Amino acid sequence: MITTTKKNKGWIVGLVAAATASLCCIAPALAFLGGASGLASSFSWIEPWRPCLVGLTMAIFVFAWYQKLKPKKQLDCDCEAYSRKSFFQTKTFLAIVTVIAGLLIAFPYYAKVFYPKPQQAKIIVINKR
């Protein structure tokens, strides 16, 4: 018996799109925490593309969830016994990747937790005449 299995790799594209969408915001924070503050400015060019990348990420995840939740076609044989799904093909893994992507996309809203408040410099002028 020949069985064909279709491996859905949509979650990889979704995770890459989510990471790219948050690259303008999370890369500076990681660079700052890592001590390479000069590297933080190298990802600022991607900020104008963020809304498009967030939309692409959402579209990919909607498609991945649709593919995962749509009703399966009934087959004549008991193919579940022959094809065991790996963890990367389960709804649990897709849910984990979706949550991680959501956290990466929402990073600009909670980024202030990672950045210290700037110190107010006090300037004292002494007038000697």
Summary?
It contains six helices and no strands. It has helices at 10-21, 23-34, 37-40, 50-69, 91-105, 107-110. It is elongated.
3D architecture notes:
Helices cover 52% and strands 0% of the residues. The chain is mainly alpha-helical. The longest helix has 20 residues, at 50-69. The chain starts with 9 loop residues before the first helix and ends in a 19-residue tail after the last helix.
Summarize the topology.
Elements: H1 10-21, H2 23-34, H3 37-40, H4 50-69, H5 91-105, H6 107-110
From the spread of the alpha carbons, the general shape counts as elongated
Largest sheet: none
Radius of gyration: 23 Å
The helix count comes to: 6
The low-pLDDT segments are none
Number of domains: 1
Q: pLDDT average, as an integer?
A: 75
Helix coverage percent of residues?
40-55%
Name the beta content range: under 5%
DSSP, total strands:
0
What is the H/E order?
Answer: HHHHHH
Give the class from helix and strand content and strand pairing: mainly alpha
N- to C-terminal distance: 100 Å
